[in-house]
Amino acid sequence: MRLLSIPDPTNVQPIGCMMNTDRIEKKILLRAPRQRVWCALSDSTEFGSWFGMKFDGPFAPGASMRGVIVPTSVNADVAAAQKPYEGTPFEITIEQMESERLFSFRWHPGAVEPDVDYSAEPTTLVVFLLEDVAEGIMLTVTESGFDRIPLARRAKAFMENEQGWTMVVKLIDEHLAHAAS
């Protein structure tokens, strides 16, 4: 008599349900004119006010921007969560700015430890894409490149940014709603 081997149900992963650990994507419907959304993304001062950063100058393709973390002006709960990191320096490099359509930059995700030099690490790419939909503007925020981050930091950077981008898309929505009133 031959015994059948039954797969361990705790070790079965359905086809097509693999978790993507290299890319985060968030979408939000913004009920604001495209030009207004674009200004909130492409103006470094306005972007910084809702995102929680203060930059050293205007955004421009190819620009290496230095800044510091500051609490957002939009949401008190998020501002409180940002407060412990206030003054932490960071750098981003603007990749693309296609007027009223696409804004992207590169950065070192989760680079908040003051005694760590992140400059030799690969960066991730953050893309803000605007699309017209019947109800307004669909903003898609994508961050990719986590699989290149050193293994010791990868999971934490991914998890923190997965949560962070969920908050960020709500912040821009709140910012635009306050600006409209």
What this model shows, in words?
This protein has one domain (22-180): START domain (Alpha-D-Glucose-1,6-Bisphosphate, Chain A, domain 4). It has 181 residues and is α+β, with helices and mostly antiparallel strands. The protein is 30% helix and 29% strand. A hairpin with a 2-residue loop joins strand 6 (124-133) and strand 7. The N and C termini lie far apart (77 Å). It has a 7-stranded antiparallel β-sheet with strand order 1-7-6-5-4-3-2. It is built from 4 helices and 7 strands; from the N terminus they run βααββαββββα. The longest helix has 30 residues, at 151-180. Mean pLDDT is 89; it is low at 1-15. It has helices at residues 34-42, 44-51, 76-82, 151-180; strands at 23-30, 53-55, 64-69, 89-98, 102-107, 124-133, 136-144.
Query: Judging by the overall fold, what is the CATH architecture?
Result: 2-Layer Sandwich
- Sketch the major β-sheet: 7 strands, antiparallel
SSE pattern, N- to C-terminal? EHHEEHEEEEH
Instruction: Tell me the number of helical segments per DSSP (H or I, 4 or more residues long).
Output: 4
Calculate Rg over CA atoms: 19 Å
* Structural class determined from secondary elements: alpha+beta
Total domain modules: 1
Q: Would you count the extended β strands for me?
A: 7
The CATH C-level class name: Alpha Beta
Q: Give the overall shape.
A: globular
Report the sheet-strand fraction: 25-35%
Can you tell me the CATH topology?
Alpha-D-Glucose-1,6-Bisphosphate, Chain A, domain 4
